[in-house]
Amino acid sequence: IEKPWDNTRLISVLRNQIALGAAVRREQRLRAENRLLRDDGDEDFIAGSRAMQKVLSQIDRVAPTDANVLVLGENGTGKGVVARLIHRRSRRADAALVKVNMGGIADSVFEAEMFGHVRGAFTDAKTDRIGRFEAADGGTLFLDEIANIPVPQQAKLLRVVEDGELERVGSSRTLK
Prior knowledge:
This protein is mainly alpha-helical. The chain has six helices and six strands.
C-alpha cells in the first residue's frame, strides 16, 4: 500500500484480500470433498487369482503413462472397473473421468457430442458446446462399447486419438 494511503482504498484492498483468502480456502475444501466423494477406493475390488493379479500388474504399469489403453472383454467382465482403476492410479486422478457409452450416441449427433460444436453450426446450435474429448481434457476418457459404432465414426475417433487434435462441428479451428 502506497503512502500516503487513502483509508477507503485500504479498506477496499483488505476486504478483497479477505474475500480472496476465503475463496481459496473454500476451493481447497471443495477439492478435498470432491476427492472423497469420487474415491470409493480400491478396497471393493477383490482380485485374488493369478490371472487378476496379472491384470492389476498391467494396470499399475500403464496407469502412470500417457498411453491409450484398449480394454477387451465380454459384457459384464468389468472393463469399466478396470478403466476406473487405471484412472485412479494415474497422474490424472484429480481430473475428470468421462465415461461415454458409444452405443448410446445417435449417428446424427455423434460428432457434436464427441467433438463439440460452435454456435450456428446447425439449427439447434444456439451456443458453443464442448464435446466429450474437451470435457475429459487433463483427465481420462473411457469410450465404452466402441465396437458398436459405425466404421466412418471410428475413423473420426481414430484421428483424434492418434493426433490429439479435433475440430468442433462448424469450426475450422483445430484444438489440441
